[in-house]
């Protein structure tokens, strides 16, 4: 059985929980509180030198880091991971876009504005850039979703999961989605997918952090 090192309010961790729920794959979840430095202990760094969650143990001593790599690992062989050569490249294209255009802006805004007490004041110098660049990413998504129901392959895939994680919390951290009707319709489509779980959903077998 997989062991997932995850933090409940981490969007990157949520991607993996959402994929595993959709796939119906059972796993042990270890809650890691990054705010208490639990991803920076010597034990954790041995498993993931980046000191970040999510991290998936796929076999004893074999760990995969990076949320979008984990999505590929768990989804290959299912309808969530396109097999067609072009569609696979398109999924990768959107997942790289998520990591360089969406997550560093909306993800950082979410972290500092929603998870860190006093974060707004601490990061006031960065807010303007996060807003400008986050809206730029949302405009790219809006243009695509005005033409297509999902990002790739005409159906729900790991590209949607990757992009959903931080887009669905954007309004909690100052991004007004009123001007993105296609993005809002897509968020609702993702939420209507079978096996959908919300960010605060937890599997039963929680294991205490070591
Ligand atoms: N590119 C990585 C980013 C992972 C990441 O930023 N994780 C955050 C939580 S969302 C973390 O563990 N931060 C703790 C730290 O950097 O000390 C991914 O997609 O998994």
Shape: globular
Biggest sheet descriptor: 5 strands, mixed
Number of helices: 8
> Unreliable runs, pLDDT <50, ≥5 residues?
none
Q: Secondary-structure map with pairings?
A:
Blueprint: E1 2-6, H1 11-23, E2 27-31, H2 42-47, E3 55-59, E4 62-65, H3 67-75, H4 85-115, H5 119-122, H6 124-145, H7 158-167, H8 181-191, E5 206-207
Bound molecules: glutathione (GSH).
Quick recap:
By secondary structure, the chain is an alpha/beta fold. Helices cover 50% and strands 10% of the residues. The longest helix is centred in the middle third of the chain and has 31 residues, at 85-115.
Model description:
This protein has 210 residues and is an alpha/beta fold. β1, α1 and β2 form a beta-alpha-beta unit. α4 packs antiparallel against α6 and α4 packs parallel to α7. It is globular, with a radius of gyration of 17 Å. The two termini are 18 Å apart. The mean pLDDT is 96. The site of glutathione has 13 residues, from α3.
Main features:
single chain, 210 residues, five-stranded mixed beta sheet, 8 helices, 50% helix, binds glutathione
């Amino acid at each position: 059985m997989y062991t997932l090192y995850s933090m409940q309010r981490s969007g990157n961790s949520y991607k993996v929980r959402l994929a595993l729920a959709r796939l119906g794959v059972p796993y042990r979840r270890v809650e890691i509180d990054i705010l208490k430095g639990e991803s920076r202990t010597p034990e954790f760094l041995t498993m993931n030198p980046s000191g970040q969650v999510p991290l998936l143990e796929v076999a004893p001593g074999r760990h995969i880091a990076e949320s979008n790599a984990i999505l590929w690992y768990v989804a290959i062989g299912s309808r969530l991971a396109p097999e067609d050569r072009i569609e696979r490249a398109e999924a990768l294209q959107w997942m790289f876009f998520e990591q360089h255009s969406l997550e560093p802006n909306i993800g950082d805004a979410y972290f500092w504005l929603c998870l860190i007490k006093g974060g707004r004041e601490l990061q006031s110098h960065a807010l303007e850039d996060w807003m400008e660049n986050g809206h730029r990413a949302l405009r790219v998504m809006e243009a695509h979703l005005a033409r297509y129901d999902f990002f790739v392959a005409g159906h729900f895939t790991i590209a949607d999961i990757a992009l959903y994680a931080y887009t669905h919390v954007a309004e909690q951290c100052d991004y007004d989605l009123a001007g993105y009707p296609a993005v809002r319709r897509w968020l609702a489509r993702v939420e209507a997918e079978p096996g959908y779980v919300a960010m605060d959903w937890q599997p039963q077998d929680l294991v205490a952090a070591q």
